[in-house]
Amino acid sequence: MSLSCNAEFTAAEHERILREIESTDTNCIGPTLRSVYDGQEHGLFMDKLEGRIRNHDREIEKMCNHHFQGFVDSITELLKVRGEAQKLKLLTSMDELRQCRLQQRNIATTIDKLTHCLPGTNIGPSKVQKKYYPALRTLEQLEESCLPQAGSYRFCGIMSENIPRLRTHIRDVSMSDLKDFLESIRKHSDKIGETAMKQCCSSVQVMCLSLTHIILQIPGAQDLVDFSPVYRCLHIYTVLGARDTFENYYRKQRRKQARLVLQPHSNMHETLEGYRRYFNQIVGFFVVEDHILHTTQGLVNRAYVEELWELALSKTIAALRTHSVFAFICFLFLTEMDIIHPLSSPVSLQGYGFPVNQLFDMLLEMRDQYGEILLKKWNQSFRQILDQDNYSPIPVASPEEYQRIAGQFPFQDPELDKMPFPKKLPFSEFVPKVYSQLKEFIYACLKYSEDLHLSSTEIDDMIRKSTNLLLTRTLSHCLQYAIKKKNVGLAELVQIIINTTHLEQSCHYLEEFISNITNVPPDTINATKLYGTSTFKDARHAAEEEIYTNLNQKIDQFLQLADYDWTAAQGGAQASDYLSDLIAFLCSTFAVFTHLPGKVAQTACMSACKHLSTSLLQLLLEGDVRQVSMGALQQFNVDVKECERFARAGPVPGFQGDTLLLAFIDLRQLLDLFTQWDWSTYLADYGRPTCKYLRVNPQTALTLLEKMKDTSRKNNMFAQFRKNERDKQKLIDTVVKQLRNLIATNQA
């Protein structure tokens, strides 16, 4: 019973499983199959499954048999559709091929049309490279040839519409380059002018005429400035048919710049650099314009350049004619030859059509100013030479050194030539230096006159007159300054006399020097002669007078040391100390005078002795000395004898006999009269030519006698009762009375 039940259950279970397999998605039959394998009747289930499969196969076979004809028909229909599909596909390919061929033809046509427009692709690079003219030519080619051949395409229309705009852009860009060029040359015109002036010829003169000379003669302004912006812009405007517009614009801008360049800066006169920049700017401006004139066809013409030249003349001359600038220009000529450059010759200027009359008038006008500036400059040079000189003979150690000095100053002395080295020249350093400066001055005058279109005679006359002014005014004043300045010593004065003597002897060499450089013989009729001889003579005489004055001042200084005891009872046996020192000073001083001309030394010695004699007499008679004793007079007599001994010794050679003693004759006769008390002889012989005391003035004798009278009374106030003293006092009173009568008689 139980086995039967189990079999039924198993069969039912297998049936359920099969239904699940048939109805369940294959992804979910895993649990179902697992229950089959987990069961005990695995084999039975497999048999059951095989039977179910066979049943389904029979059903499928029945179904297939039922629908076979329809299937066949469907296959047949499908085969027909495939053939039609292939035909349809072929038609589509043919349409695509046709479309492709059409595109190829269009591309070829496009390439052909664009080929005509290829020149337009060069416009961009041409503008970048500033090849504006090729760009314009390309636009013209596009407009006149390429675009018409390309046809009426939209891109052709766009290109055609842009051509005017591109032309305008090219014109504006080239004009921008021109403006940059104009601004650049405005800023750098001084550099352009400086470079141009350095390339100018070496003849040196004042700036104004040099403008044209530099403009016309310098090699290659294109080496100084890049003119390509001007040429490009001129070409562009010419191609565009607007050349007149460009010419007018260029000239207008350059006229404005000319006015700016020609207007001096307010502080120009303050520095040399200000003048240098002003002149360089003017030169630089005309360098550019001259180059434009000769390298462009009509951008500027001769009339335009001449107009600017006239403007430059008027402005520059007006500036240079002002007093301060006028003088400063001459100063610049002396100090900064690179600022004020060569005057161009009139032949060169007139050959280029430039009028130069105004310039020559100005230069002639400047000549006097220039001469004054020359004199001022050489005044400083002479002052410096005289201040720095040591006023000592020049020592010469070797023949080479001697030849060097002889090359600077024409000096000949056969006696000195025979002397061995080392030796000394008689003059100091200032002689060759002054002579060299005189020659330099003559050269400076010649340089100014070189290109003034003057004849040789006129140049010679101008140089000689200027040199005379230098000698008679400038050098003369400098020598007077050196002679008159404080603390100048006798040795210096002596050397000045020696120096001026040698300079005077060199004057004829200066005459020859001027004649050689002007080619005008010195003996030409109406030729101006140099006044050097008189100048140096005057200076020498002034030095001599200064020596006399200086000696007298020294004598006065020693006399201030005199300390006489005017009431002394008895005089000494020796000369006073101050006088001994004075005589020693005079001896040493006159020893230095050995190189002076004999007459100068003799005059100086005589003058000193006369001054000493006069000063001693004044010392004796001065009002502060109220009493003079016989003892003081005896000491004074000893001092005068010392002076006479000095004169008799001959401190300088050349005096005949006792000529120098005559300087002390007044003192000697006065002292002899008092020390010998020889009043009877004096009063008896007064007025006779053979009078022993001819040089004694009654007033002088009276003044001294009254001093002695007062002394006698004071010293003998207690001895007035002695007979001798009373007699002496009476005698003095009598002599005083007689002297007064004598003086009164002479005055009547």
TrEMBL record:
<dbReference type="Pfam" id="PF04091">
    <property type="entry name" value="Sec15_C"/>
</dbReference>
<feature type="domain" description="Exocyst complex component EXOC6/Sec15 N-terminal">
    <location>
        <begin position="48"/>
        <end position="89"/>
    </location>
</feature>
<dbReference type="GO" id="GO:0006893">
    <property type="term" value="P:Golgi to plasma membrane transport"/>
</dbReference>
<dbReference type="GO" id="GO:0005886">
    <property type="term" value="C:plasma membrane"/>
</dbReference>
<feature type="domain" description="Exocyst complex component EXOC6/Sec15 N-terminal">
    <location>
        <begin position="90"/>
        <end position="197"/>
    </location>
</feature>
<keyword id="KW-0813">Transport</keyword>
<dbReference type="InterPro" id="IPR042045">
    <property type="entry name" value="EXOC6/Sec15_C_dom1"/>
</dbReference>
<dbReference type="InterPro" id="IPR046361">
    <property type="entry name" value="EXOC6/Sec15_C"/>
</dbReference>
<feature type="domain" description="Exocyst complex subunit EXOC6/Sec15 C-terminal">
    <location>
        <begin position="358"/>
        <end position="707"/>
    </location>
</feature>
<dbReference type="GO" id="GO:0090522">
    <property type="term" value="P:vesicle tethering involved in exocytosis"/>
</dbReference>
<protein>
    <recommendedName>
        <fullName>Exocyst complex component</fullName>
    </recommendedName>
</protein>
<dbReference type="GO" id="GO:0000145">
    <property type="term" value="C:exocyst"/>
</dbReference>
<keyword id="KW-0268">Exocytosis</keyword>
<comment type="function">
    <text>Component of the exocyst complex involved in the docking of exocytic vesicles with fusion sites on the plasma membrane.</text>
</comment>
<dbReference type="GO" id="GO:0006886">
    <property type="term" value="P:intracellular protein transport"/>
</dbReference>
<dbReference type="InterPro" id="IPR042044">
    <property type="entry name" value="EXOC6PINT-1/Sec15/Tip20_C_dom2"/>
</dbReference>
<comment type="similarity">
    <text>Belongs to the SEC15 family.</text>
</comment>
<dbReference type="InterPro" id="IPR007225">
    <property type="entry name" value="EXOC6/Sec15"/>
</dbReference>
<dbReference type="InterPro" id="IPR048359">
    <property type="entry name" value="EXOC6_Sec15_N"/>
</dbReference>
<dbReference type="Pfam" id="PF20651">
    <property type="entry name" value="EXOC6_Sec15_N"/>
</dbReference>
